[in-house]
Amino acid sequence: MNYYLIIPAHNEEAFLKLTLDSVVKQTLLPKKVVVVNDHSTDATEAIIDQYTNSYSYIHKLNTTSSTLHMPGSKVVNAFKKGFETVDDAYDFIVKLDADLILPKTYFETIATTFKQHSTAGMAGGFIYEENNNGQWLLNHPMNKDHIRGAFKAYTKACFKAIGGLRSSMGWDTVDELLCRYHGYDIITIDSMKVKHLRPTGKGYNKKARLLQGEAMYKMRYGFWLTAIASAKMAAKQKKPKLFVHNLQGFFQAKKNKLDYIVNEEEGAFIRNYRFQNVKRKLF
């Protein structure tokens, strides 16, 4: 299967080489890799140039955006600019972060998964992060059927059906909900252990704390689903303030009448799907 990788990179000199090394060692190589140098001020571009000079399928795209590491919009906007440079001759497309080390059979396994599951729309492994004792442990606060945004792989049919990625916090939740809305399955692969070199959330600035609640508003969760989801999130992460921040973000977005990122029918499906999951866990 042919696949393209798009790698947004902003000041990733500490990790990018390790990520690209794991890409070029894949048992199934990508047809094309686009590394989007997004307003980097460190040695990121020089590292990209080393690989574009050595591997014909790796390409660089320089772009300029905000220097703030805001979750959602910045990385998705960089991805979209990279996506604009590729053609339509791919079987699956991948948004890959620049701070990962992939198992060498990662994309061969993804390709096999898509071949074996005709209804699969998305596939991915799981993130592992290193603790203070040097142990690589599973870091997955969400459900086991969720694929982290760091390495999302989409079939072309699914990617087109969901309308690509949304430039908003919550993009890596709404894409999965829309995947299901359009009748596709999400396949997670336990054996694919991806090393994440930067602990989750370390790059986010303080302005990002309200964006989760804003995202829930934009996905048309409504108040009660937002409250339930926020309480669950706060409990899992052991951060009571997270519940408060989410609700503040939700009501601020409602007050400002921000645009939704799904239509009414999609929103109704999302609320029903989420509430059904809540009922299953309670009863």
TrEMBL record:
<dbReference type="Pfam" id="PF00535">
    <property type="entry name" value="Glycos_transf_2"/>
</dbReference>
<keyword id="KW-0328">Glycosyltransferase</keyword>
<dbReference type="InterPro" id="IPR029044">
    <property type="entry name" value="Nucleotide-diphossugar_trans"/>
</dbReference>
<keyword id="KW-0808">Transferase</keyword>
<dbReference type="GO" id="GO:0016757">
    <property type="term" value="F:glycosyltransferase activity"/>
</dbReference>
<comment type="similarity">
    <text>Belongs to the glycosyltransferase 2 family.</text>
</comment>
<feature type="domain" description="Glycosyltransferase 2-like">
    <location>
        <begin position="5"/>
        <end position="150"/>
    </location>
</feature>
<protein>
    <submittedName>
        <fullName>Glycosyltransferase</fullName>
        <ecNumber>2.4.-.-</ecNumber>
    </submittedName>
</protein>
<dbReference type="InterPro" id="IPR001173">
    <property type="entry name" value="Glyco_trans_2-like"/>
</dbReference>
